[in-house]
């Protein structure tokens, strides 16, 4: 468990290190909104695919489970465990719906909707991460990917909100 938490902390610090570099932030802020919206659409597509994968695993319980690496690193918590449902609804459905709304918002250049849904998605992802790591002592590799995608989308939504004038 300690090793898994350390791995997660290194991944989070890597994201922070990447986004905290002044030259990289300047580059991101200089990106046109069209480029940012395109990147968000690509990320939302991959997030949707991951949510569909986890939902498929949860609904059909296939014999082949590539996500199951060992007792600490696996997707069991989100497939059959305590995080499998949130308010009685399969948890992957929240991700699927969120990524689909994000994709649509990026397609239509809806800055406020993108910011709202990515903020809610990030909070939800952090809550799931907390439950998995602190309460259940497991790490879901697919969830980590979803969390990284959502954190990146959140940063991109901040950029597009700050670049209101740049539409090229």
Characterization of the model:
This protein has 168 residues and is mainly α. Helix content is 74%, strand content 2%. It has helices at residues 2-20, 22-30, 33-60, 76-79, 91-107, 111-135, 141-162, and strands spanning 85-86, 89-90. The protein is globular, with a radius of gyration of 17 Å. The mean pLDDT is 85.
Short descriptors:
168 residues, two-stranded antiparallel sheet
In short:
By secondary structure, the chain is mainly α. The chain has helices at 2-20, 22-30, 33-60, 76-79, 91-107, 111-135, 141-162; strands at 85-86, 89-90.
Quaternary structure: single chain
Quantity of strands, as a count: 2
Strand content: under 5%
Secondary-structure-derived class? mainly alpha
**pLDDT averaged over residues:** 85
Instruction: Provide the gyration radius in Å.
Output: 17 Å
Order of helices and strands: HHHHEEHHH
Major beta-sheet overview? 2 strands, antiparallel
Give the topology.
Elements: H1 2-20, H2 22-30, H3 33-60, H4 76-79, E1 85-86, E2 89-90, H5 91-107, H6 111-135, H7 141-162
Helix pairs in contact: 3-5, 3-7, 5-6, 6-7
């Amino acid at each position: 468990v300690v090793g898994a938490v350390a791995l997660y902390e290194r991944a989070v610090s890597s994201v922070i290190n990447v986004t905290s570099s002044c030259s990289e932030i300047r580059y991101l802020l200089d990106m046109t909104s069209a480029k940012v919206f395109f990147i968000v659409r690509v990320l939302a597509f991959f997030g949707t695919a991951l949510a569909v994968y986890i939902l498929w695993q949860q609904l059909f319980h296939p014999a082949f489970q590539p996500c199951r690496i060992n007792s600490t690193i696996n997707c069991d918590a989100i497939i059959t465990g305590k995080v499998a449902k949130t308010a009685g609804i399969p948890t992957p459905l929240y991700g699927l719906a969120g990524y689909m709304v994000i994709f649509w918002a990026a397609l239509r250049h809806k800055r406020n909707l993108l910011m709202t849904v990515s903020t809610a998605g990030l909070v939800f992802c952090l809550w799931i991460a907390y439950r998995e790591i602190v309460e259940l002592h497991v790490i879901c590799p697919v969830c980590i990917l979803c969390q990284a995608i959502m954190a990146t989308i959140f940063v991109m939504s901040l950029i597009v909100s700050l670049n209101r004038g740049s539409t090229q």
